[in-house]
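Q: I'm building a small set of examples for a reading group on sequence design. Run inverse folding on the following structure and report the sequence directly after it, with nothing in between.
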């Protein structure tokens, strides 16, 4: 009996050793119905129970836990291979707004925009003359019109609108020059030139400045024009030039006047009009108006102050004929 018990113990220890061996032996410990222990390859039979580590401890065949083994090497082991990339994480919350950045550098000038609906007049070099406000294709005098343009007058720092008479040959000039219809503050018709404010009832005009000031030229010089501002009008006694025949009778008529013209002062003798070979006596006469009905007895004139504005210059610059129409603004 004792011999059988020893035999079983040896057999069981051998089985435990086999089970504790590396997994490549594929041996299992089986318990029969009669309580015997059998080591089998692969798996136990259907009537047998497969025993695990817990069953061995219950049989008293597994020893107590041993003491901890010595510490391993302090140096780190070799770096392992990089693992595969993990799945993509969830999208994070939006970050807060950052501080305002510095202004960027100015960009390049853009391309010129498309032409507007206005019709322009340009000179032979394509330079701007002005925007057309009126056209007249007269069969006798030829094609002409008026243009407006924004410029700075010689006495102003602000740009203002001016109106110019034009034709294909260039600006329209006055036959008599700027002095035609002008008046003077002095009784010898010298010094500053003024333009009366004509156009209203009995010759009185508005003192409000227009949308655009009308420009005229003195003779053939079209680089500088002249205009007046009605708002700068001055009410005073003015004097104007008139012509008489260059003779003793002309001098007498100038200094003594008549029922229709007041007496004036002889200035000198000169051409009756620009380019004329005829000589006339130039007489400076006080500005006057005719009597209103009923006229009554002569003389039929009344000398009295009137409104006029000083003539101002504006530099236009050199624009070369031939002028022509254009659908785009000139350069």
């Amino acid at each position: 009996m004792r011999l059988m018990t020893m035999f079983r113990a040896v057999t069981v220890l051998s089985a435990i050793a086999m089970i504790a061996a590396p997994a490549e032996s594929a041996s299992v410990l089986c318990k029969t119905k009669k309580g015997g222990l059998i080591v089998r390859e692969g798996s136990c039979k259907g009537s047998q129970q497969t025993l695990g580590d817990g069953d061995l401890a219950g049989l008293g065949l597994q020893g107590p836990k041993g003491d901890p083994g010595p510490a391993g090497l302090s140096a780190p082991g070799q770096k392992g291979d990089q693992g595969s990339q993990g799945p993509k994480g969830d999208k994070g919350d939006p970050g807060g707004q950052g501080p305002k950045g510095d202004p960027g550098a100015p960009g390049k000038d853009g391309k010129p925009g498309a032409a507007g609906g206005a019709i322009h007049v340009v000179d032979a070099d394509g330079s701007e003359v002005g925007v057309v406000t009126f056209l007249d294709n007269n069969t006798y005098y030829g094609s002409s019109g008026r243009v407006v343009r924004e410029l700075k007058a010689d006495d102003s720092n602000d740009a203002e609108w001016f109106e110019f008479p034009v034709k294909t040959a260039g600006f329209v000039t006055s036959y008599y020059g700027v002095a035609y219809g002008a008046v003077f503050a002095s009784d010898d018709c010298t010094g500053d030139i003024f333009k009366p404010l004509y156009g209203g009832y009995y010759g009185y005009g508005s003192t409000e400045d227009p949308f655009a000031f009308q420009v005229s030229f003195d003779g053939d010089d079209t680089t500088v024009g002249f205009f007046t501002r009605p708002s700068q009008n001055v009410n005073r006694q003015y004097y104007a030039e008139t012509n008489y025949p260059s003779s003793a009778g002309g001098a007498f008529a100038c200094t003594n006047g008549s029922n229709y013209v007041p007496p004036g002062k002889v200035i000198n003798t000169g051409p009756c009009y620009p380019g004329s070979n005829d000589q006339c006596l130039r007489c400076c006469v006080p500005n006057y108006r005719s009597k209103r009905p009923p006229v009554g007895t002569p003389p039929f004139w009344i000398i009295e102050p009137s409104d006029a504005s000083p003539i101002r210059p504006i530099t236009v610059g050199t624009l070369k004929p031939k002028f022509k129409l254009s659908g785009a603004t000139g350069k």
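The helical segments are 2-20, 53-58, 248-256.
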